[in-house]
Amino acid sequence: MSSSTTARTAAVADAESSIKPYDLVGIGIGPFNLGLAALSQPLVDGGVLRAAFFDSRAEFCWHPGMMIPGTTIQVPFMADLVTLADPTSPYSFLNYCKQQGRIHQFYIKEDFNPLREEYSDYCAWVSQQLSTLEWNSTVTSVRRVDDLWEVTVNGPRGTCTVLSRNVVVGVGTTPFIPGELRAAPEAGLAVHSADYLEHKKELLAQESVTIIGSGQSAAEIYADLMEPAAYRGTRLDWVTRSGRFFPMEYTKLTLEMTSPEYAQFFRGLDAATRDRLNREQRNLYKGISGQLVNHIYDTYYRLSITKGLPRPFASTLLAGWSAALCDTDASAPFQLTLTHGETGETRTHATNALVLATGYKAPLFPSFLETAREEVQFDTAGRLAIDPGFAIDAAQSLFVQNAEEHLHSLIAPDLGMGPWRNSIILKAITGREYYPIERSVAFQTFGGQ
């Protein structure tokens, strides 16, 4: 065969490859879609599946603003990207430790929860081994064309369109600031917890700092600032709307609520009951680790008796108070009105800087899906109507990750349940259960099961 014929053959192959539909296109490469990519990689290698995953970022990086030294993720290492679906996967956390030459050190450490920095590095390590990931690639639209999805992507080589039989949306969440505090970043040094480390030095240079929030992030930031604030003479306050500094519920029978049985039970409840339970059960997964609560108390005690500080450690812990911006006071850039949820009492609170540990929120409807809105199903409250297979369209070919809290409660954001959800999605896409899906794992019975 001549060189020109070979070149033409290669060109034809490239052209056919560019228009041949994918079986799976993933939008967003956070932990959940990264886990899906890892579980699908053996199927891609075996010619069973053709897949591509797109993300606008340059590389994997998980909450860089909260990589506080010494902090851990709140789940054991088995809640990695793949283990609970495939313990033999080369993309497990334990294999990552082995390849890094520190599996024995991790074993001797006897702490099941990986460091947060370690977990992020593990995910990045997995991402570097997968052939289906496309970074610096922003999806701008998804539309239905006959029985396929047309996905438009702005990438390093310009704008292109790919076709896929199935699409899995895993765009994650974005920092949330409640309306009563939304103007704060424009009024002075007010940073969301997502950007904390970038502004830590600037915060400590202030005369006073107030943290607002009730969860793990607020507690970690408070704990991280206590010592340096005390030695710099910076006043450090913590305000939370939650009635108490509630610890996360982490007993074993409660952990069974992250199970297929509880997902089925919760899904069968009426919408009003589900919404009520989601409010009541927030502390089960959005509280503070008990170990950290104790660490904060012990540090406060130690600082309260430490001599040689510029001034006695100045800090007030205010539980049960909601905060709202009011008119700026001349004595400080921020003046807050605090209202106690149980007594109705109000007071003012002045501070030089704010850390808004006010959580994250998933987009109600990603803008790139507007072109597919007619295909998407909604419930009576205008929320995504997600079926048991995590599809949101009648054809069961458009799937979502971590968007079903209103249907599955605390299971939706749980890292450990990601492999279970991904196993279900892969079965729906391929028609075969490549990874065994557990239907019954709990010792207890929920409802009338």
Give a short synopsis of this structure.
With 449 residues, the chain is of the alpha/beta class. The protein has 15 helices and 18 strands. Belongs to the lysine N(6)-hydroxylase/L-ornithine N(5)-oxygenase family.
Explain the overall architecture.
The chain has two domains: 19-173 and 362-430, FAD/NAD(P)-binding domain; 175-248 and 287-360, FAD/NAD(P)-binding domain. Helices cover 33% and strands 18% of the residues. It has helices at 3-19, 31-45, 93-99, 103-109, 116-127, 184-187, 196-204, 216-232, 252-255, 260-267, 271-280, 282-286, 290-305, 405-408, 418-430, and strands spanning 24-27, 51-54, 133-134, 138-145, 148-155, 158-164, 167-169, 174-175, 189-192, 208-212, 235-240, 317-319, 321-325, 334-340, 346-351, 353-356, 360-361, 398-400. The radius of gyration is 24 Å and the shape is globular. The termini are far apart.
